[in-house]
Write a structure and sequence with these properties.
Blueprint (H helix, E strand, L loop, with lengths): L15 H55 L22 E5 L14 E7 L2 E6 L4 E6 L2 E11 L5 E4 L17 H6 L2 E9 L12 E9 L3
Antiparallel strand pairs: 1-2, 2-3, 3-4, 5-6, 5-7, 7-8
Length: 216
């Protein structure tokens, strides 16, 4: 026996309440997606800044390290080069001399340089070419500690007691005898991000410290 069913079309659709529920759910979903995007964007931006600071710290430290290792280099042995001139270096500034072009004199660019922190700019000044280079910005600390070494290999700290030589900041500097004893220089660099962390409202800081041995 064949059963015939009659399908009656209905004109009924979604009610207004159902449409509102769909709309609210759609808005909630869109809000969740947008919030997730914002969080990811903030996290990526902060991580990028931290990575940039760490890269800048390492790059600047490599430049300073290279210069310290070259301090006093005298390939021709024609003159007594003072690698760290007296009354020119202290706890937050450093002057270095070196004969890097091997001509027997300190007369070429890059052979007589100074480091100092000016505000939040770490500066490298070339006394021969009279040029100033900003190595890094957003530097909050540039600290230097000096160490000597006895004949038995004992390391001791040298506290600068010399006079201040303008235009450096007020404070003690290495005297001639103290400068001649320096075998190691410990460099500390503190740097912060260019923008604040949106979650904390504070800058993010990173620190790099390295003790460098003079070779000359």
């Amino acid at each position: 026996m064949i059963t015939i069913r009659k399908v009656v079309a209905s004109n009924n659709g979604l009610t207004l309440i159902e449409l509102m529920i769909v709309l609210v759910l759609s808005l909630l979903l869109m809000s969740a997606v947008y919030l997730a995007y914002q969080i990811q964007h903030k996290t990526s931006r902060v991580q990028f800044q931290v990575t940039q600071v760490q890269q800048d710290l390492r790059a600047v430290m490599e430049i300073i390290t290279t210069d310290i290792r070259h301090a006093g280099v005298d390939p021709t042995f024609t003159q007594s080069i003072v690698g760290i001139p007296s009354n020119e270096s202290g706890s937050n500034f450093l002057r270095i001399a070196m004969d890097i072009d091997e001509d027997g004199s300190i007369s070429a660019p890059g052979e007589d340089i100074s480091y100092r922190l000016n505000g939040t700019n770490l500066e490298r000044f070339d006394h021969i070419s009279n040029t100033l280079q900003v190595l890094a910005q957003n530097v909050t600390m540039f600290a230097l500690s000096y160490f000597g070494e006895t004949g038995t290999g004992t390391i001791y700290q040298i506290v600068p007691t010399g006079s201040t030589n303008p235009p450096f900041e007020p404070g003690n500097t290495l005297s001639a005898s103290e400068a001649s004893e320096v075998r190691f220089i410990e460099v500390r660099l503190d740097m912060r991000t260019a923008q604040v962390d949106p979650d904390t409202g504070n800058f993010l800081d990173r620190t790099l410290t390295r003790r460098v041995c003079r070779r000359n």
